[in-house]
Design a protein that fits this description.
136 residues, Aminopeptidase, 5 helices, 6 strands, globular
Length: 136
Amino acid sequence: MIKVSPEINKNTANNIIKKHNLAKNSVILSAYNGGELAAYAAFNENGHSAEVTVFEIIGCTDHSNQTYEQKFISELLVRAIGNYAANRNMVYITGENNNLFFTAVSLGVNSSKDSVRIFIPALFKKCDSCEKERNI
């Protein structure tokens, strides 16, 4: 089972902060698969945006060619960032992170390799079949 949540292990959080030279107030969300760290993202709250500075999938050396599991974890991580940000009245996920770009594209977001801007409500829109079931 994959669990995505804010990083609660202070050692892991500090190692990520040091490795990427992040600000101490960076928000770090981690994805654990069976108790093992599978991915993490760091971002800063910047007005109406969650500005992603780090987006890492453990063991992924080429984000343009992810395995099925890596794509699944990437999408979960982006949606977790969106959920965290939306609960704090932010409306965008932004970043100049090439790793985030490939996940944004797979989610159908128009982005350039130079910058990503994801409208958070679009991540959580209801699908057509959900609306049809509700109207039955």
